[in-house]
Design goal:
This protein is mostly helical. 80% of the residues lie in helices and 0% in strands. It is built from 6 helices and no strands. Helix 1 runs antiparallel to helix 3, helix 3 packs antiparallel against helix 4 and helix 4 packs antiparallel against helix 5. The longest helix is centred in the middle third of the chain and has 30 residues. The protein is elongated and about 55 Å long.
Length: 146
Amino acid sequence: MSVKSGERIGGWLLAPLAWLLLALFSASLSLLIYAGALMTPEMLASLKTQSSSYVTLWAISCAFAVAMWFYTLWLTIAFFKRRKSVPKHYIVWLLISVVLAIKAFAFAPVSDALAIRQLLFPLLAAALLAPYFRRSQRVKSTFVNP
């Protein structure tokens, strides 16, 4: 595997990297919450008393959290290795984040103000960073490794 010399990660690319690292941290915390729920006998007993549809939705939510954590981890590693596939996958990752925020907005039993605030950040990040990753010369000259 050859490593091409391109520009280092810097400038405006530090903002998407920070967003990615914060998302990885947040996903790790959510996985700890799911793991904590599965490890305490009280929560397991509470889950067993719920309807099968609720447990199924909870399991699907947990599976999506695990999948998003792995995808975010892989993307973070690829970002630091400056792989060519990062711009495309970063845009896909942003869109998945928006879809998950919309899902939370539509189906979570939280107040509208909190749901809108949680939806605002992924929408803003996607609106700003997706065009940047598509058109920026800095991105094209930074992510050059296979």
